[in-house]
Design goal:
Elements (H helix, E strand, L loop, with lengths): L2 H7 L14 H12 L10 E6 L2 H10 L4 H5 L2 E8 L9 H19 L3 E6 L6 H9 L5 E10 L27
Antiparallel strand pairs: 1-2, 2-4, 3-4
């Protein structure tokens, strides 16, 4: 697949075929995509918790109100930032985590895997529930979780540029 086709094909899928395991080499490729993401000032605070233990995934599925996909997916990756040595007040880690998550979703799509981005950071009560299940210390933030597996549903690809959200020049060029 060419890269634009992969990006247009990447869609959020929340229903997975639990009986079809993801090959280990595909998991490794998704994780490699995550760890290759850029980092603001190359500070590299991003850490990854690979969640492929059925008990942990089921615990997330049981505690979260939107937890059903965790009970069906083959694996997930919690994208976190260790802020213990990070500059106070800097938010570059959010961008670093976002780039890593998007890299994973795009790579998963290129491997014919389904995925979605489960937002965690500053989402109450999800944030506290995830932190508790994953036993995340206070100096670490959980930005989100990439959820992966073979899809049990199909979502059509996008077809190209949505011109309603694109303008050139200044903001004033956007019309209601």
């Amino acid at each position: 697949m060419d890269m634009l086709k992969v990006m247009l094909s990447r869609r959020s899928v929340r229903t997975f075929d639990r009986d079809k395991p993801v090959e280990s080499w595909k998991k490794d490729a998704v994780i490699a995509a995550a760890t290759s993401a850029p980092s603001a000032k190359n500070l590299r605070p991003v850490r990854f918790l690979v969640l492929d233990d059925r008990e942990i995934l089921d615990d997330l599925g049981n505690v979260l109100s939107q937890g059903k996909p965790f009970k069906e997916c083959d694996f997930a990756v919690a994208v976190c930032a260790d802020l213990s040595d990070y500059p106070d007040g800097s938010l570059g880690w959010l961008e670093d985590c976002s780039a890593a998550l998007e890299n994973m979703l795009i790579e998963a799509t290129s491997l014919d895997l389904a995925s979605f981005w489960f937002g965690v950071y500053r989402r109450d009560p999800k944030e506290g529930q995830v932190r508790s299940v994953l036993e995340v210390p206070s100096h670490v933030e959980v930005q989100g979780i990439g959820v992966f597996g073979y899809g049990a549903e199909s979502v059509p690809a996008r077809e190209g540029v949505d011109s309603s959200v694109v303008r050139y020049g200044r903001w004033g060029d956007f019309k209601a």
